[in-house]
């Protein structure tokens, strides 16, 4: 190819949406390298919930956790889903013989006894779930203080651990049963991932109603602090419409950052990794890192607001 043809080709590529996207991505990566964050003065406990299945709860929990750890936060992920997908993605063993969050909830084992360090980072901790947790929903029914068992275990852990986590993220199952109620009672914040797809808002009023009930009867400190738009496909008008609609309803809660649909994000768990470790410069990883920085900034602003 002649030099003039080559440069014409390069020039026309530079004008394509893909080239613009790549240039934008490297600018965002550079901005993230330069960012400085303020860690919370007190541990923030955030439950990641949506009773709709497959909206990105687990994916968001583990990737936000890894992104937070990558900017220096100490993070504990509590895997409260019997599927154990968060434990898998964090590379933490969770076979049936491993002591898990089940033993904490049902047999009063201290949380410290089951917490493992993810091979990804010494700042990334995980309280794994095992298949036994599938029975916990029923076993909890007959337990004393059945709605408060996770809160008590977490309070005891935070009071005794020499290295207090800055953020605790709880990955919930896709239901509003006793496991999710335990998460709502233990947390002060709810993060709702919303998939930018048809029926995104379906069931949301039920979820908000449950948060209100918990607030009234079990945990007055609970509030929906964060909504995260996930699996956004910029090529479809539908994704844009859903995003606009959610922003109209929840102006203050929705993060500016949107998580794009990305093959890298969906591949990472099969390598027992988060996307931050698997391909930290990919569009999905960059978005989760931006979302983590945004959450810390909003938390710091809220703390300052309270003080002044
Ligand atoms: P469940 O309700 O079963 O717990 P969930 O809400 O935790 O599901 P995930 O397991 O995080 O949802 O995600 C559902 C599926 O969508 C998974 O296969 C995941 O890999 C995929 N997925 C999530 N986020 C993205 C993304 N940004 N891009 C591509 N695929 C994604
Ligand atoms: Mg899940």
How many strands in all? Answer: 8
Number of helices: 13
Regarding quaternary structure, what we see is single chain
The distinct bound ligands, ions and cofactors come out as: adenosine-5'-triphosphate, magnesium ion
SSE pattern, N- to C-terminal = HHEHEHHEEHHEHEHEHEHHH
Based on Cα principal axes, name the global outline: globular
| Spatial strand sequence of the major β-sheet | 3-4-2-5-1-6-7-8
Tell me the structural class.
alpha/beta
CATH homologous superfamily identity: P-loop containing nucleotide triphosphate hydrolases
Named CATH topology: Rossmann fold
Mean pLDDT: 93
**Largest β sheet strand count, sense and barrel closure:** 8 strands, mixed
Strand content: 5-15%
Indicate the radius of gyration in whole angstroms.
Answer: 20 Å
Distance between the termini: 66 Å
Which architecture would the CATH scheme give at its second level?
Answer: 3-Layer(aba) Sandwich
List unreliable stretches of 5+ residues: none
Descriptors for this entry?
308 residues; alpha/beta; binds adenosine-5'-triphosphate; 8 strands; binds magnesium ion; globular
Q: What can you see in these coordinates?
A:
The structure is a single chain. This protein has helices at residues 3-14, 17-34, 57-70, 85-89, 101-107, 133-139, 149-160, 178-186, 204-217, 237-249, 263-267, 275-278, 283-307, and strands spanning 44-48, 75-79, 116-117, 124-127, 167-171, 189-195, 223-232, 254-260. It is an alpha/beta fold and 308 residues long. An 8-stranded mixed β-sheet has the order 3-4-2-5-1-6-7-8, sandwiched between helices. Strand 3 (116-117) and strand 4 form a beta hairpin. It starts with a helix and ends with a helix. The structure holds adenosine-5'-triphosphate and magnesium ion.
